[in-house]
Amino acid sequence: MTWRRPQRRPELIDRWELRIFVSTAFAETVDRAMLREHEVSSAAEVERRWRDRYIPAQQLYFATVGPTDHADIVVYNDDPKRPVWETRTL
Length: 90
Known about the structure:
- The chain is 43% helix and 13% strand.
- The chain has one domain (17-87).
- It has helices spanning 10-13, 26-37, 43-65; strands spanning 20-23, 73-76, 84-87.
């Protein structure tokens, strides 16, 4: 598989009045995917797909685009019943 660099759109960054980034730990995203997809895929298949494809893609996105660097608010959503947020001055 060949990775392409995610497209940056710096011309759009300042067009938003408020930028919110919702964050969840990678391990939590795998657990949620297993719950969500258990009727259509085995747990092993879901975990493989997330660990081999989705998480590396997100890591590449963070490394090349730095979405939290442009967010006004970062919501930490590891516990959906108790999200925590951080406001930032950019």
